[in-house]
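Please predict the structure of the following assembly.
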Amino acid sequence: MTQNLVLAIETSCDETAAAVVADGKNVLSSVVSSQVDIHARYGGVVPEVASRAHVDLITPVIAQALVEAGIDHSDVDLVAATRGPGLIGSLLVGVSAAKSLALVWKKPFIGVNHLEAHLYSCFLEEPDLELPLVVLLVSGGHTMLIAMDDHLSYKILGQTLDDAAGEAYDKVARYLGLGYPGGPIIDQLAVSGKPEIEFPRPMLHEGYNFSFSGLKTSVINYVRKNPGTPIEDIATSFQEAVVDVLVTKAKKAAIEINAKGLCIGGGVAANSRLREAVLDVCLQEGLHSFVPSRSYCTDNAAMVAAAAWRRYSQDGPSSLYTGADPNLRLPE
Amino acid sequence: MLILGIESATSQVGCAIGGHEGVLASTHSSRGKRHAENLTPQIDFVRQQARVELDEISVVAVDIGPGLYTGLRVGVAAAISIAFGLGIPMIGVSSLDLIAYPARHCQKLIVAAIDARRDEIFHASYRQVPGGIQRVSDPTVSSPQDLSAEIQAQGNETLMVGDGAIRYADQFENLRGVEPAEPGSAYPSASSLVQLAHAKALREEFVNPSELKPLYLRKPDALEINKQRRRM
């Protein structure tokens, strides 16, 4: 049986990634070169630093993806790259590389929406997930609650009005002097803390939009007023507040639209408390839950390949005039 | 030997194909920062005009800067990907060399200056040598005022070239013995790139795609860190 092989490239933020995926679901290779150590000393992603690192890493990462997949470039059927949303300088490296490879290999090219790719990370491991689904997409740049009625058909139910959930983690971690990135550090500390501080649950019962800026401020104010509080307790209480808001709204949405299941995606979906809470709520409500492997939650190119294949099957290739769009929205 | 040259360090983006017979086809566009959109179709167009297939290309030459970083990286990322995709070597040439090269018949000191934004210019100086030009100072970034003072102190008969010399013409126009830059000298050309790369290819001055490094001349975090901190 011939397989349809997609080579996908992802450079929207600070991970240089390439993957080879067969038929939109079988991952033959998924290489991610993270720049997290480079950015850690700045306490966040510095766009120019990220763009320069992408140029240095792009061909070695693609080469490794092809080698690990055990294929030659002549086997590739489609070359894909994330074209937005993200950091413009970073996106352009991946888009330019993918279009160039498509041109010299005489293969079709497709530009992929990074948000759509995150939604399709769920289908990599469970290709037969039943629709409709509610997907909670949470990362350093996005916090969105999406209803997916059919493949490639979405409705954004709500999103953050200020900081993304991952951004709130980073900012709280930075204020507490914990380092970068904040998510894994707070997650780790929260394991041994007590959730005794009642931080606010912003907009808990107000629709599907989120707001995390006020929560971040109350954590900072609390620490100023109570300097002796164990840092683990602050981490646990903050995390409980974030997860409570995310899961309460996701559950409400899933019930309201009569979803068959609830999925999570994005970097914050790697958070152990969020994963646990999603599984719990689905068990309570009799929903099918799907929590992707951590490596498919954070930015990766396998999910880009999955979305690329789905899009290509429906819409065909993108033009070689395709550029990057830092503010690309999810098509509704 | 066929060379594909890619040039995107300034506000224009272009490419050319050439070799022993000279430049076979070339193209440039400069309207509205569309480097990433335009470059791939341009390469395909130039290939058709030159009547060659891309797998006949044996070397990829690229302008490695200095220049405007985002545009520069579009060309460099495309060039290293093409070289990787075809399994062929590369040649990197500085944008300053490219704008000085068309002035190679001039006896004066040639100062190539590219607009670096933020009130600075990238620049280097060149002298005529048999068969071409030779760079006599390292590429550097400085204020137009500093470059002007340097030129004045040296007191050489000087020809200015490049969009940096044009943008800050008022800094150089009253200096004795200095010939101002002409608009035609503003930007690097992909044809010059192919011609310069051809000479280097004959000397086998190749690099692998993974070894090619853009010439940025500024640290990446210089101006971004303060902006980051303020966002908290």
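The two ends of chain B are 55 Å apart (CA to CA). Chain B has eight helices and eleven strands.
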